[in-house]
Amino acid sequence: MAKKKKATNNPVIATNRKARHDFTILETYEAGIQLVGTEVKSLREGKASLVDAFATIDNGEVWLRALYIPEYTQGHWTNHTPRRSRKLLMHRYEIDALMGKVRDGKRTLIPLSLYFKDGKLKVELGLAQGKQDYDKRQDIKRRTEEREVTRELGRRIKGINA
């Protein structure tokens, strides 16, 4: 009898950590990706990069551009192109809603993470608006203040318990 594989809860392959620093995320969406075989094998090895990746809406279809999936090491002439455009799979009503929100040019679609869900690759897209430099500084200041408050509370609790 074959052993059952241990189920992992949504193993994240890649995250775009810089996206939350450079953009304000207004909404998030989950979409599937149309891939070829060697791309899936390369992703199962945990190789991908979301740096500089973005999504566009062309002719009623959502496309993920500049996502880097390296060639599969054991692939041959059927290997894929590492930075090709990949079609995202979403419901029509989601695409229509996104078209209305992105049309004005102030917002963009940024991939936040790549992960497997029930054996299928998913991408978390964020509807994002660019931050100005002063917004970034305010966020850094706010995080620093929160960190200092939690440290001080931790010291006081340890002082009481000691």
Task: Characterize the structure shown.
There is one protein chain. This protein has 162 residues and is of the alpha+beta class. It is built from 4 helices and 7 strands, in the order βαβαβββαββα. It folds into 2 domains: 119 residues, Small protein B (Small Protein B, Chain: A); 31 residues. The chain is 32% helix and 31% strand. A 7-stranded antiparallel sheet has the order 1-6-7-2-5-4-3. A hairpin with a 2-residue loop joins strand 6 and strand 7. The chain starts with 11 loop residues before the first strand and ends with a helix. Keywords: Cytoplasm, RNA-binding. GO terms for molecular function: RNA binding. It is found in: Cytoplasm. One of its GO terms (cellular component) is cytosol.
- What's the level 1 CATH class of the largest domain? Mainly Beta
Oligomeric state of the chains present here: single chain
Count of helical segments?
A: 4
Give the name of the CATH superfamily of the largest domain. Answer: Small protein B
Q: How much is the average pLDDT?
A: 85
Distance between the termini: 56 Å
Question: What topology does this entry show?
Answer:
Blueprint lengths: L11 E4 L3 H4 E11 L3 H8 L9 E5 L2 E5 L20 E4 L2 H11 L4 E11 L2 E11 L2 H29 L1
Antiparallel strand pairs: 1-6, 2-5, 2-7, 3-4, 4-5, 6-7
Which features characterize this protein?
162 residues; alpha+beta; Small Protein B, Chain: A; 32% helix; RNA binding; cytoplasm; RNA-binding; SsrA-bd_prot_CS; SmpB
State the gist of this model.
It is built from 4 helices and 7 strands; from the N terminus they run βαβαβββαββα. With 162 residues, the chain is of the alpha+beta class. The protein is globular, with a radius of gyration of 20 Å.
